[in-house]
Amino acid sequence: MGKKTKIGRNALCPCKSGKKYKSCCLDSQNNNLHLKEEYQKKYNIILKEPYQIDGIKKSGKLLLSIMDEVENLLAPGLKTDDINTFVHEKIIKANAVPATLNYRGFPKSVCVSVNDVICHGIPGNLILKDGDIVNIDITPILNGFYADASKTFFVGTPTKDGQKIVNIARESLRRGIEIVKPNATLGDIGFAIQSYAEAQNCSVVRDFVGHGVGVKFHEPPQVPHFGEKDRGLKLVQGMVFTIEPMINLGKKDLYILKDKWTAVTNDGSLSAQFEQTILVTETGYESLTPFDL
Ligand code: MF3
Ligand code: CO
Ligand code: CO
């Protein structure tokens, strides 16, 4: 947790009105201005304005419509690169841009992560087979606004292990989202996820975290999927960030393939993930990429 910087009552109001704090924004409805300023200055967090929220929501709608179409394509025999071609074309047709393409050298327009691949799987010549689990992570930029969400699907008939890890990953996200409201902390989110997943004898990946999103792909803050209650940054209205727990059936350790992206479980166990883009509202949260969990 960062140090609290208290604004003196007689100090100049940080809203730049030129008035004293006590006769301007202190305890007024304008307090949001202070939060905006404080979160920007201290944490580099952009609290979103209504027009930005609207833009992210529209990007999220596009994302989810593509996700549904991809789900219908999935079948044994499908090549992961065919998923990339499909997602790429849908995003372009909607006058949007795939955020992952050429992002820090990532070569494709969607992440496709199969079985023991935790995340950042690069679509290629791999052919899906019966019983696989596959995470599809889609990130359109529409009119400059980023939405980020993923789901893990079954290919053909699910295995017992596949069912188990997918259900636990889905429930992990559900529990994480449920915590979100003003004055809850990032630690509360991590705790809700970690305590649940570990009680199921699964593990939470540490090396990748959720993140602020909307105006850029990866904004502050980082959102760990593990943690302790009452620790970490306090959530405030207007924050937009992803929650995207990666849950392994075995141990949490991973390695990265020579392609510099693909993250794989060290012990070869299955890994599943669900992700949504979440807005902190006045009373709780709203998903900007809503789907049932
Ligand atoms: N969509 C991923 C996330 O949830 C990021 C993928 S970055 C990439 O944050 F370069 F691997 F595509
Ligand atoms: Co993300
Ligand atoms: Co994502």
Report strand %: 15-25%
Number of strands: 17
Sheet with most strands = 3 strands, antiparallel
Structural class: alpha+beta
C-alpha geometry = globular
Number of helices: 5
The strands making up the biggest β-sheet line up spatially as 1-5-6
Mean pLDDT: 95
Secondary-structure element string: HHHEEEEEEEHHEEEEEEEEEE
CA(first)-CA(last) distance: 31 Å
Radius of gyration: 20 Å
What level of helicity do the residues show? 25-40%
Task: Summarize this entry quickly.
This protein is of the alpha+beta class and 293 residues long. The chain has 5 helices and 17 strands. The strands form 6 sheets. Strands 1-5-6 form a 3-stranded antiparallel β-sheet. It has a 3-stranded antiparallel β-sheet with strand order 2-4-7. The protein has a 3-stranded antiparallel β-sheet with strand order 3-14-13, with no helix packed on it.
Structural commentary:
- By secondary structure, the chain is α+β, with helices and mostly antiparallel strands.
- The protein is 29% helix and 20% strand.
- The protein is built from 5 helices and 17 strands.
- The strands form 6 sheets. The protein has a 3-stranded antiparallel β-sheet with strand order 1-5-6.
- Bound molecules: 2-amino-4-trifluoromethylsulfanyl-butyric acid and cobalt (II) ion (2 copies).
